[in-house]
Specification:
Layout (H helix, E strand, L loop, with lengths): L4 H5 L12 H7 L5 E3 L2 E3 L6 E5 L6 E6 L3 H16 L8 H17 L1 H12 L3 H22 L6 E2 L13 E9 L2 E5 L5 H15 L2 E5 L6 H12 L7 E3 L4 H9 L6 E5 L2 H10 L6 E5 L4 E5 L5 H13 L9 E7 H17 L18 H16 L3 E4 L3 E2 L5 E2 L2 E4 L6 H4 L6 E7 L2 H9 L3 E2 L1 E5 L3 H10 L4 E4 L11 E2 L1 E2 L2 E2 L1 E2 L1 H6 L2 E9 L1
Parallel strand pairs: 7-8, 7-10, 8-9, 10-11, 12-13, 12-20, 13-18, 17-18, 20-21
Antiparallel strand pairs: 1-2, 3-4, 5-6, 6-26, 11-24, 14-17, 15-16, 19-23, 22-25
Helix pairs in contact: 3-9, 4-6, 5-6, 5-8, 6-7, 11-12
Bound molecules: nicotinamide-adenine-dinucleotide.
Nicotinamide-adenine-dinucleotide (NAD) binds next to helix 9 and helix 10.
C-alpha cells in the first residue's frame, strides 16, 4: 500500500532528547567559534547563523558566519604554520603519530560525533555510528601509515658525463603542495572532511577547512579533537559559513595553493574559474547519476536489495547513489516489485529514533527539489510505483520512491536528484544498456549485477566511470581510489593516488 502525505504529516518526529549525552553538552556549551591559528574566535564582523535539525526545524546551535576577513586570517595562519616549526620540520613519524592520535580521539568520541551528525544532517544514527564516523577514523589510520611511505626516485638520465671526473646524478623528491582549502558538502560531513584532512596532513600540507553551511557541527567538534591531539596551531583552520561568501573568498585567495572540493558539478565548474588567477591545484569530487545494471542471470534478490540500499541509504543523498537501474527484461518485473516493496517497508523517522531506517533530507529546499523532479516526471507520464510524497512537520521528509516508464531524455533520468528516487528501466540488449549507461555527462560510478564472470568484466571495461562495482554498490575503503570521469570530477581520493593530490614532485639534477 502506498503511503500518503497524510501518513507522513502524522509523523510528529519526537526526537529522542539527547539531554544526557555528550552531543547535548557540546550544543549547550555556548558560542561556537572559528578555529584560526589554534584559537577559537568569533567571526571578524560578529556574524552568526543557525544550524537546525532538519526533522524538527529546531535550532541546534548558532555558529560563526565567516567572511572575507576570516578567510584572510585563516590562510595567513595556515601559511605561517606551513613555513615554520614545528610543522615545517616535522618527520614522517611525527605526522603519522599525530594522525593516529586524531583517529584515537575520534574513536573515543564516536557516540557524540555520530549524534551530532544525525541531529545536524538528519541521517539515521546507525549510518553515522556504524558507517560514516568509523570510515572517517579509517581515513586517519590509513594515511597515518602512508605518511611514512613517501618516496622519491633516483633517475638515470641520458645526459653525457661532464668530463672524465664528472657525472650527472638526478633524483625526485615529493613535497607538500602547501596551503590547502578543503571545501566539503553536507551529505556525509565528517567523512568528507576526513577524506581531505588525513591525506593533506600526511603529505605535510596545512589546511583551511570549510564545512557546508547546513552541517557545520561535526567539523567544529573535530577541530576541538585536532587541538586535543596536539595539531600545531594553524595547521588546520576551520571556517564555518556560506559557499558564496567564505567559500568563494578561499577559492579566489592568492595564498591558497590548492582547492580540494567535494560538491556539485555546478560549483566545481565555478572553482575551475576561481583557481585560474594563481593556477591553484584542484581536486574535484562532483556529482553523479550512477547506473546499476542487473543482468538476467543475476541473483535478483541480492541485486534488488543491493541497489535499493544504493539509492535509499542516507535518503539518496549519496554521490554514487544507484539512481538509474536497468534490469534485463526477464528479471525486470521481479526487480521492480522487490524495490517497491523495500521502499514501502522502510520506516521514516527522526534520525535519533532507533526505529527509523530513513531520516529527513538535509533541508526543506532539498526535499522541494526532489518533489519537483518526481512531479515533473509524473507529468511526463512516468509511473510512481512507491513513494513520491514529501511530508513531515518541516516538509523535509521524502518517501523512498520507485519510478518506471521514464524516457531516456527526461530530467528524472539525466540529472542528479540527490534524493531517494530510483528510476527503473527494462532492457533487452546488453550492448544497448551499455550505451544508455554511458549516455550521461556524469561518470562517477556504476554497478553490474551478474553471475557471469566474463559479462561482469566485459561490462566493467565498457562502462565509463571512476568506479565499477560487480555484485555490490557503494563499497568504499581507504585503499580504493575514488574519482569521477567526465563531469564527475578531476583527480582521485583514497589510496596512494589520494596522497599524490597533496604533493608536488621536484626534480633535482646535479653534476657531481
Ligand atoms: P554544493 O556544491 O552546493 O556545496 C558544496 C560545498 O561548496 C559547500 O561547503 C558550499 O558551501 C561550498 N560552495 C558553494 N558555492 C561555493 C563557491 N562559489 N565557492 C566555494 N565554495 C562554495 O554541494 P552540496 O549541495 O553541498 O552537496 C551535494 C553535491 O555534492 C552533489 O552534487 C553530490 O553528488 C556531491 N558529492 C560528491 C561526492 C564525490 O565524491 N564525488 C561526494 C559527496 C557529494
Amino acid at each position: 500500500m502506498t503511503r500518503t502525505a497524510d501518513t507522513l504529516a502524522g509523523l510528529s518526529f519526537n526526537p529522542v532528547e539527547p539531554s544526557q549525552t555528550a552531543a547535548a553538552r557540546f550544543l549547550a556549551r555556548g558560542p561556537l567559534g572559528l578555529l584560526i591559528g589554534g584559537r577559537w574566535t568569533a567571526a571578524a564582523d560578529g556574524d552568526e547563523f543557525s544550524t537546525v535539525d532538519p526533522a524538527t526545524g529546531r535550532t541546534l546551535a548558532m555558529v560563526p558566519r565567516a567572511g572575507v576577513q576570516d578567510a584572510e586570517a585563516a590562510v595567513a595562519a595556515a601559511r605561517i604554520a606551513l613555513e615554520s616549526d614545528p610543522w615545517a620540520g616535522n618527520t614522517p613519524e611525527e605526522r603519522s603519530r599525530l594522525l593516529w592520535r586524531i583517529a584515537d580521539l575520534l574513536e573515543a568520541n564516536l557516540d557524540e560525533l555520530a549524534a551530532l551528525e544525525s541531529l545536524d544532517q538528519g541521517k539515521v544514527l546507525a549510518t553515522a555510528k556504524f558507517g560514516e564516523i568509523p570510515a572517517a577514523i579509517a581515513q586517519f589510520r590509513y594515511y597515518a601509515a602512508a605518511a611514512r611511505a613517501l618516496e622519491g626516485t633516483t633517475v638515470p638520465t641520458s645526459l653525457r658525463r661532464q668530463g672524465p671526473e664528472r657525472q650527472v646524478f638526478a633524483y625526485t623528491v615529493r613535497e607538500p603542495i602547501g596551503v590547502v582549502a578543503a571545501v566539503v558538502p553536507w551529505n556525509s560531513p565528517l567523512l568528507m572532511a576526513a577524506m581531505k584532512l588525513a591525506p593533506a596532513l600526511a603529505a605535510g600540507c596545512t589546511v583551511v577547512l570549510k564545512p557546508a553551511e547546513n552541517t557545520p557541527l561535526t567539523a567544529l567538534r573535530l577541530g576541538e579533537l585536532l587541538v586535543e591531539a596536539g595539531t600545531p596551531a594553524g595547521v588546520v583552520n576551520i571556517l564555518t559559513g556560506f559557499g558564496q561568501e567564505v567559500g568563494a573568498a578561499l577559492a579566489t585567495h592568492a595564498g591558497v595553493d590548492k582547492i580540494t572540493f567535494t560538491g556539485s558539478t555546478a560549483v566545481g565548474k565555478q572553482l575551475v574559474g576561481d583557481a585560474r588567477s594563481n593556477l591553484k591545484r584542484l581536486t574535484l569530487e562532483l556529482g553523479g547519476k550512477s547506473p546499476a545494471i542487473i543482468m538476467g542471470d543475476a541473483d535478483v534478490t541480492r541485486a534488488a536489495a543491493g541497489v535499493s540500499r544504493g539509492i535509499f541509504d542516507n535518503g539518496g543523498q549519496v554521490c554514487v547513489a544507484s539512481s538509474r537501474i536497468y534490469a534485463q527484461r526477464g528479471v525486470y518485473e521481479q526487480v521492480l516489485a522487490a524495490m517497491a516493496e523495500k521502499a514501502e517497508s522502510l520506516s521514516l523517522g527522526h534520525g535519533m529514533d532507533p526505529r527509523a531506517e530513513l531520516g529527513p533530507l538535509v533541508s526543506r529546499a532539498q526535499a522541494d527539489r526532489v518533489q519537483a523532479y518526481v512531479s515533473s516526471g509524473r507529468a511526463e507520464g512516468a509511473e510512481v510505483l512507491a513513494g513520491g510524497v514529501q511530508g513531515g512537520a518541516e516538509g523535509t521528509f521524502f518517501q523512498p520512491t520507485v519510478v518506471s516508464g521514464v524516457a531516456e531524455d527526461s530530467p528524472l533520468m539525466r540529472e542528479e536528484i540527490f534524493g531517494p528516487v530510483a528510476v527503473v528501466t527494462p532492457f533487452d540488449d546488453p550492448e544497448q544498456v551499455i550505451e544508455w549507461a554511458n549516455d550521461s555527462r556524469y561518470g562517477l560510478a556504476a554497478s553490474v549485477w551478474t553471475e557471469g564472470l566474463s559479462n561482469a568484466h566485459r561490462m566493467a571495461a565498457q562502462i565509463k566511470a571512476g568506479t565499477v562495482w560487480i555484485n555490490c554498490h557503494s563499497y568504499f575503503s581507504p585503499e580504493l581510489p575514488k574519482g569521477g570521469h567526465k563531469e564527475s570530477g578531476w583527480g582521485y581520493e583514497n589510496g596512494a593516488l589520494g596522497l599524490s593530490n597533496y604533493l608536488e614532485s621536484k626534480t633535482v639534477c646535479a653534476v657531481i
